[in-house]
Amino acid sequence: MDPEPSERTADKPVLAVLAGQRRDPPPLWMMRQAGRYLPEYRELRAHKGGFLDLVYDPAAAAEITLQPLRRFPLDAAILFSDILIVPHALGQELSFVAGEGPRLAPPLTNASLDDFQPRMDRLQPIYETVRRVRAELSPSTTFLGFAGSPWTVATYMVAGEGSREQAEARQLAYRDPGRLAAIIEAIEETTLTYLLGQIDAGVDAVQLFDSWSGSLAPSEFERWVIAPTTRLVERLRTERPELKIIGFPKGAGGKLAPYARETGVDAVGLDETVDPVWADSVLPEGLPVQGNLDPLALIAGGEPLELAVQRILHALAGRPHIFNLGHGIGQTTPIAHVESMLRLLGKGL
């Protein structure tokens, strides 16, 4: 039997699913739904400047957060920001290089956290963005905040940039686990402050992005993904007992089930490599799931898109489900294909 709707979740389909209810059709939002595939985003960015300029401009960031909801009947807004706001608040300098991605300086391969001067004031513009969006949202739209999970944020802080293998952080974990543990602890503390600030400013629920969790061996995954996430979830719940938390351990594969059992998250996001039939068979009964359309199937459109959507809906029909992509929407995604996906999900345009 589905849980009875609470006063808080009854009119918000995404929150209702996170509370354990099933909805038909499932509610929908898309990772990176506020971004480069939208012409209105590209126009605003060309006018306002670089990515970080937009993130720290509450009026612009609020506008970007709301843009996809004006165009599509989505059930959630997700804050326009970045997971690297946390290291920036810790005092590591952050920039974005065109065509190459983020840079953090100095990297912790040759610097210490003690070298940094914390700048918690850098979180304030994000909270102001949340307040502005909250004032504009429909009562039925769930507002999602987010942060990077400690392991993924640590990989950027150690290397000073993103990498496919996260070799610098993984090597540090083996060579000097005490030092990596101190970095993880600092990230946890700031992330707790950051997410509580988002909640107090108006988000309804939060997602923890662990984009690089798939790079770790099983024992390392337990130590650097599950354990820090569990501590963070427990501390968030102590402060905000009714908070709903989505965990997204991208690339976790066979480690997805222990992540779901041990971390205490309310829902697990499935990336596009996860077979939803398998996930349904190994995840705890009744645990809400989110996902997991391949972003490339959305770019392809047509029959591949239709088949992919139907397979996910069929596989996850027996548990609470939020339809989403398995990762962020691609910048070359045709708007018409998003509209087709919405029609396939029974969301009229």
Describe this structure in words.
The chain has 349 residues and is α/β, with parallel strands linked by helices. The chain has one domain (14-289): TIM Barrel, CATH 3.20.20. The chain has helices at 13-18, 39-48, 51-55, 58-71, 85-90, 124-136, 150-159, 167-175, 177-201, 218-239, 256-263, 276-282, 295-300, 302-315, 335-344; strands spanning 76-78, 93-97, 101-105, 142-148, 205-210, 244-249, 267-269, 289-293, 321-325. Helix 4 runs parallel beside helix 6, helix 7 (150-159) crosses helix 9 and helix 9 runs parallel beside helix 10 (218-239).
CATH class: Alpha Beta
Counting structural domains, the number is: 1
Query: Count the strands?
Result: 9
**SSE succession:** HHHHEHEEHEHHHEHEHEHEHHEH
Helix content: 40-55%
What is the CATH fold-level name? TIM Barrel
Q: Can you tell me the overall shape?
A: globular
Stretches where pLDDT falls below 50 for ≥5 residues?
A: none
Order of the strands making up the biggest sheet: 1-4-5-6-7-8-9
What structural category do the secondary elements indicate?
Answer: alpha/beta
The average pLDDT value, as a whole number, equals: 95
The CATH architecture term is: Alpha-Beta Barrel
